[in-house]
Amino acid sequence: MDQGNNGGGRKEISEEPPMSRLFVICGRNITRDQLVRHFEDDGEIEECVVIVDKKTGQGKGVAYVKFTQTSAAARGLRKNGSYIENETRPIKVMISASYQKKKEDGSPEEVNEFKFRRLFAVLPISKTEDDIRDEFSQFGNVTQIRLVPDKKNQSQCAAYITFSSFLEAALAIEGCDFSYRAKFCLPRENLKQNQQQQQQQHYQGNQYQNQGNDGGRYGNGGGNNGNNEYSRKRTHSPENNRSGGDVKLVVICSSGLNQDRLWRLFDIAPGMKYCNIVTQNDINTTASVVYACRDEAQRALDKIHGLEYPIGERIIVRYENEFRDEMQNCDILAPLGPPKPILGLQNAQCAKKAFFICMPEAISVKLLQDAFCRFGDLINVYLIPGKRHGYAAFASEVAADRAIQQLHGIQLGDCRLKVLECMEQNESKRKRPMDQS
User: Fold this and answer.
1) Dist. CA 273–CA 248, nearest whole Å
2) Helices (H), 153-291
3) Could you say which residues form the signal peptide (predicted)?
């Protein structure tokens, strides 16, 4: 086993076999030997590199562990959240490399172990589904088999074999007959969805450009702004999470992270265009990261938001529009008092509901919760799916009445709230004594 070096991390690490390298976020004082001992029971380690500062030799809190087999890396993934000897904080473990290029746009396909549970193999036409299931069940639980005849070669067929886990699929690829040429494959519907998304985004972009200034009042954008204005206005709308065009994330992190380290961290998710530090002081760093589309930005947010990097310092990742709106809302909502805990459905019984309408478009539930929780005794806030109205449930009538009185007509970002008493609940209360009599 080559344990690599403790250099600045510039050394290229092999990507073969695919998905055999782990990216580990850990403590700054963790050594290569500690990592090797922690992961060596998962399989043969080809290389282990702890990234350190060239000048000080201090660890940067990240490392790479490269295995000789994909299945070993799959086992290593299960140690996400585990503790290395003598450390008090858990480590974060991810596959570090992209698997392959997407055919439609040439960008890397994100490695997500939940996707990679299916393999493709070329088998003799004489193999039945039962034969295949018996042969491949030695590697794990086979959940689905689909056979497709080869029109060019009638003696063979294409087999798509799905397992319960990424590890089982990796074991099957490594352990099955070499002549099968087995490899990972993605669901075909992913490619179709991407193509349909692109067509829909192209149509919407042309549509909103042609509507001119008349569409501005609904957040659809004027003729000069086109699809960018459409994306800006409808960021929080529940039905528009896949808008086209570049998407910017705002990142708040440790002041010890420079632009190069942020670039490497956010480049884990495919589609990143660039990463820039906006402000930096002794306390924290604020940066912007731009992705080619919202789906790619969402993957980065899901992976990195909340990570402790360095250990003990969490990274906050938000969409730029949401971040801007929240900053504005902090000033607007400050006179109403600080946020108070949300009780939740299991901890309290609803005493009164407030009915609200977002005009012109719905905003995120998180922003709504931030507003309604200021009055205390909030149980839950929910939007009607696909609509711009919803309900806020309170455990006390006093809190509900205060919310109705003080939030009605308030402006939150681009949205104005209309807040009223829930008439359905009031009518049911009036009918209850009559029904009992």
Assistant:
1) 10
2) 166-175, 188-211, 227-233, 259-266
3) none
Largest CA-CA distance found in the chain, in angstroms, rounded = 84
**In this structure, is the dihedral angle defined by the CA atoms of residues 279, 291, 234 and 341, taken in order, positive or negative?**
negative
CATH number at 117-184: 3.30.70.330
Q: Looking at the predicted structure, is the pLDDT value of residue 435 above 80?
A: no
**Does the domain formed by 337-421 have CATH 3.30.450.40?**
no
The tens digit of pLDDT for each residue in 8-39 reads 444 455 667 888 989 888 888 889 999 999 99
> Is the pTM here over 0.70, yes or no?
no
Token pair listed for 259: 């632009």
How confident is the model over 121-145, as pLDDT tens digits? 999 999 999 999 999 999 999 999 9
Q: CB-based contacts of 203: which residues, under 8 Å, 6+ apart?
A: none
The CATH number of 21-100 is 3.30.70.330
Give the CATH H-level superfamily of domain 247-327: RRM (RNA recognition motif) domain (3.30.70.330)
User: Does 247-327 match 21-100 at the fold level?
Assistant: yes
Cα(215)–Cα(223) distance, integer angstroms = 9
